[in-house]
Amino acid sequence: MGKVVMYSSVSVDGFIADENDQPGPLFDWLLSGDVPLDESGVLKVSQTSYDCIRPYWDQIGATIVGRHVFDMTNGWDGTPPAGVDHVVVVTHRGRPEGWYPEAPFYFVDGIAAAMAKAQELTGDRVVEVAAGDIGSQVLAAGLIDEVRMDVVPVVFGSGKRYFGSVHTQHLLEDPDVVIQGNRVLHLRYRVRR
């Protein structure tokens, strides 16, 4: 079974979206360099960010997201983001009728079913969990091994929190990755068991 990683870009005050549910400048760092991050050539980062992010992205076998993220992005038009092989959507509703029937997206009810499906699909590769409400549920269930954050120099003041609605304390180890890129600080923490 692969590692389970909670991941997102985040403001310095801990938000993954502003009060209008928009990411604002949180993804500007993905356009701040001259090294293509994927085959599209649209995302260009610093060499430092590329060396940190590309190997991580290559390890991801499936990403777990909530229905809200799926709806906001229209499921990335049926193409999983960042070259990920599969997306597992936690929802009480199934696949939208007629929506990209061949897309490698799976619609399940609850985090237990999402984790089971993601691990079935990925084997020993990384299961990525989107930060926010779904991430907080997986963290509360004790299933997150690692927290990764791309911290962007912006303060939102309010909005959607990286750790969602976590109501209990969770200890993390000291960061074992701290890398400064252009307009971003990449951090990685292991979850203390």
TrEMBL record:
<dbReference type="GO" id="GO:0008703">
    <property type="term" value="F:5-amino-6-(5-phosphoribosylamino)uracil reductase activity"/>
</dbReference>
<dbReference type="InterPro" id="IPR002734">
    <property type="entry name" value="RibDG_C"/>
</dbReference>
<protein>
    <submittedName>
        <fullName>Dihydrofolate reductase</fullName>
    </submittedName>
</protein>
<feature type="domain" description="Bacterial bifunctional deaminase-reductase C-terminal">
    <location>
        <begin position="3"/>
        <end position="172"/>
    </location>
</feature>
<dbReference type="GO" id="GO:0009231">
    <property type="term" value="P:riboflavin biosynthetic process"/>
</dbReference>
<dbReference type="Pfam" id="PF01872">
    <property type="entry name" value="RibD_C"/>
</dbReference>
<dbReference type="InterPro" id="IPR024072">
    <property type="entry name" value="DHFR-like_dom_sf"/>
</dbReference>
